[in-house]
């Protein structure tokens, strides 16, 4: 008994049970059915696995049919269709009948005879198309050409190029800066191709790198598109101020007049007589140190006066005064005549495009010579009216008051000729005259309203700052609740001290004002990170090549008057009708800060002849990015300017014919779009040449190839008598019968 319980006995017992289990499995009907299915599979060519599954399913259906006492015949879908046609007498059904007698009758109990009928699908014979025989080019039979006048096709407008007419470009509205990926989506192009185009421009960028407006413009030009900058948050908010007023809403406004001239020529004293106040006494040393805005009420109207400093240290203030004034009153002392700062004031007024009225002051002095001053004015193209010119010249005396009424009358008359108008029934906008930090009151900003009406408790945005107006006061220090156009007011409540000359806008919502201020602060930080560079003579060539400049502005400083006149005479002889040579300012002496500031405002070149640069001007040059070119000989200066002018002239374009091809077939490819199958009838085609697409004797497209192929290969050249496949860049409306002409453009530089 102990032996029976050993492990060896247990193993033997387990093996015995497995053998008995295998015997039971061999007797099961399912195994016998599988054997029958294998026999069926051997009799036919169908795969074994499909046959086993099919027969097993059919046997199950037969078993269910026997249980109900019905005959079961299993049909395939094809057999059912054939059976239907057989009933209609269309076809004869001949199908192999497989009787599974030996395998199934042992499983199923005796009963009615059951037959399983399998109708296999007939083999489908695939028809192999006969190979197409392509004849040689000589054997091509061309049918007579039938003229088909197609509907008018919109011309594909490529970028304007010298030699053929300018065309319209597709407009894309983009938010700048934009990433390479987003730009590719807008252009409908693959990002890899856009990056390749940037690499051709010698720019290595990634797909998520942001592109600025200049780069995006160049890329869009290659795809025959032009960009339209989408309006941002700031533009949308301030768009109401850009809406033009209707004529019925405009009302006359008073003129804004600024007094300009040389130091100590009596500007503030003259203004003091007009205002009937002692402004000059409150200034340090009797010299005006900041812009003052004063409003004068006269019998015939109201005038707003801006008093600008006259000496060199405050040149920037004088620039600001000229830019916001409607009329400039140039004050010239009758005993001193025209001085250096007087000429600068004239140049600044001309740059701003402001009409000039000359007031010859100090006529009561013993050494006064009015005719000498008029002669000097005539040399500066300010010919007086009594000498047959157009400049109003009024002799005045700030000490005796002589000629003051005549001067005011001339100002009113000039303003009426200008027809100055504004709309007082809208939100205000204007300009900052001056700003300072006052102890106890915070930032105090002097504003000049240019349009609309500024009211108490309104929200304003000023430069990078915002604020809600808590208090307003006029030039006499009196509190006011509103300010109409051409009225200067001081306001409290701005969050910081803005720069003079900044524009301000009244905004309905304070939240929007805060958002705009924060956006501007962020842009200012980004701008400070980037280096600022003004135009230099070296940079001029690049802009000339881009055809951006048709006017050359110059500021010339020489050591003596004779050299200055010689330089001006030499450069004037180079002037041509296509290029305007504009002398913004010419003077004797070193290059000073005033010259640098004038170059910044007018974007002019500073040319020096045997002169130095002041220390203050050097600091300003570094800050503003202005370059001064100094010469020792007139010929060197003249040659540089001559080269610049020649580069600005449009070159002569010579067109060289290369070849002509006829479009005989259009192919629509999934990966390449529409490809024109062409036959070169004359000349040859180069991959880089320019092409014209001619239809019905009219040019409908001018541009370049996007691809040139022979069979499936890209080629650089296709000679006469050969076929080729052509795709045009930016144009896919080619039809059969079109003519493609290839040519090259040769640019011939023009010389003076």
From TrEMBL:
The organism's taxonomy opens as:
Bacteria, Pseudomonadati, Candidatus Omnitrophota, Candidatus Sherwoodlollariibacterium
Alphabetical list of Pfam families matching this protein: EF-G_D2, GTP_EFTU, IF-2, IF2_N
Q: What does this protein do?
A: One of the essential components for the initiation of protein synthesis. Protects formylmethionyl-tRNA from spontaneous hydrolysis and promotes its binding to the 30S ribosomal subunits. Also involved in the hydrolysis of GTP during the formation of the 70S ribosomal complex.
Name the gene for this chain: infB
Give the similarity note. Answer: Belongs to the TRAFAC class translation factor GTPase superfamily. Classic translation factor GTPase family. IF-2 subfamily.
UniProt keyword annotations, A-Z: Cytoplasm, GTP-binding, Initiation factor, Nucleotide-binding, Protein biosynthesis
Q: What is this protein called?
A: Translation initiation factor IF-2
Q: Quote the cellular component terms of the Gene Ontology held in the record.
A: cytosol
Q: Which GO terms describe its molecular function?
A: GTP binding; GTPase activity; translation initiation factor activity
The compartments listed are:
Cytoplasm
């Amino acid at each position: 008994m102990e032996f029976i319980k050993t492990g060896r006995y247990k193993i033997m017992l387990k093996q015995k049970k497995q053998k008995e289990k295998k015997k039971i499995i061999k007797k099961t009907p399912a195994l016998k059915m599988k054997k029958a299915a294998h026999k069926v599979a051997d009799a036919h060519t169908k795969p074994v696995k499909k046959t086993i599954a099919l027969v097993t399913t059919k046997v199950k259906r037969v078993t269910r049919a026997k249980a109900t006492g019905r005959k079961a015949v299993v049909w395939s879908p094809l057999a059912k269709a054939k059976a239907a046609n057989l009933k209609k007498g269309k076809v004869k059904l001949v199908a192999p009948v497989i009787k599974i007698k030996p395998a199934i009758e042992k499983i199923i109990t005796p009963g009615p005879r059951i037959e399983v009928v399998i109708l296999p699908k007939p083999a489908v014979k695939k028809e192999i198309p006969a190979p197409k025989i392509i004849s040689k080019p000589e054997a091509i039979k061309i049918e007579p050409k039938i003229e088909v006048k197609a509907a008018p096709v919109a011309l594909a407008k490529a970028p304007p190029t010298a030699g053929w007419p300018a065309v319209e470009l597709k407009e894309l509205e983009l938010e700048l800066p934009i990433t390479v990926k987003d730009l590719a989506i807008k252009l409908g192009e693959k990002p890899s191709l856009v990056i390749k185009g940037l690499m051709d421009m010698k720019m290595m960028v990634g797909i998520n790198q942001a592109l600025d407006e200049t780069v995006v413009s160049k890329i869009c030009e290659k795809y025959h598109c032009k960009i339209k900058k989408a309006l941002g948050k700031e533009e949308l908010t301030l768009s109401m101020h850009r809406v033009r007023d209707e004529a019925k809403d405009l009302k006359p406004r008073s003129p804004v007049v600024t007094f300009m001239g040389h130091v100590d020529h009596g500007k503030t004293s003259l203004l003091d007589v007009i205002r009937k106040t002692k402004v000059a006494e409150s200034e340090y040393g009797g010299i005006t140190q900041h812009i003052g805005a004063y409003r004068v009420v006269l019998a015939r109207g109201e005038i707003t006066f801006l008093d600008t400093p006259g000496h060199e240290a405050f040149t920037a203030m004088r620039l600001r005064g000229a830019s916001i004034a409607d009329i400039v009153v140039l004050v010239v002392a009758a005993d001193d005549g025209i001085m250096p700062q007087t000429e600068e004031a004239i140049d600044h007024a001309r740059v701003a495009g402001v009409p000039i009225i000359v007031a010859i002051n100090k006529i009561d002095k013993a050494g006064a010579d009015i005719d000498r001053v008029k002669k000097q004015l005539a040399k500066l193209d300010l010919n007086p009216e009594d000498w047959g010119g157009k400049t109003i010249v009024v002799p005045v005396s700030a000490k005796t008051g002589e000629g003051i009424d005549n001067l005011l009358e001339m100002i009113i008359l000039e303003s009426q000729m200008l027809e100055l108008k504004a709309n007082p029934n809208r939100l205000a906008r204007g300009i900052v005259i001056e700003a300072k930090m006052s102890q106890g009151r915070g930032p105090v900003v002097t504003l000049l309203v240019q349009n609309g009406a500024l009211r108490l408790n309104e929200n304003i945005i000023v430069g990078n700052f915002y604020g809600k107006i808590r208090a307003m006061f006029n030039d006499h220090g009196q509190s006011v609740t509103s300010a109409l156009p051409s009225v200067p007011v001081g306001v409290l409540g701005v969050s910081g001290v803005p720069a003079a000359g900044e524009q301000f806008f009244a905004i309905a919502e304070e939240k929007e004002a805060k958002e705009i201020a924060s956006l501007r602060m962020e842009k200012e930080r980004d701008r400070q990170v980037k280096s600022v560079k003004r135009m230099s003579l070296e940079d001029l060539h690049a802009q000339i090549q881009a055809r951006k400049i048709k006017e050359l502005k110059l500021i010339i400083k020489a050591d003596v008057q004779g050299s200055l006149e010689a330089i001006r005479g030499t450069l004037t002889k180079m002037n041509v009708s296509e290029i305007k040579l504009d002398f913004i300012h010419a003077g004797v002496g070193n290059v000073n800060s005033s010259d640098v500031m004038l170059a910044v405002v007018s974007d002019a070149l500073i040319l020096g002849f045997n002169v130095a640069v002041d220390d203050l001007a050097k600091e300003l040059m570094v800050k503003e990015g202005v370059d001064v070119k100094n010469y020792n000989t007139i010929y060197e200066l003249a040659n540089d300017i001559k080269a610049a002018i020649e580069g600005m002239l449009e070159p002569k374009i010579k067109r060289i014919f290369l070849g002509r091809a006829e479009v005989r077939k259009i192919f629509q490819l999934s990966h390449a779009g529409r490809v024109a199958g062409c036959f070169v009838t004359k000349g040859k085609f180069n991959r880089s040449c320019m092409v014209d697409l001619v239809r019905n004797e009219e040019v409908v497209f001018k541009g370049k190839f996007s691809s040139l192929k022979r069979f499936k290969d890209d080629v650089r050249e296709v000679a006469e008598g050969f076929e080729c496949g052509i795709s045009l860049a930016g144009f896919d409306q080619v039809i059969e019968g079109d003519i493609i002409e290839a040519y090259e453009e040769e640019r011939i530089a023009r010389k003076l």
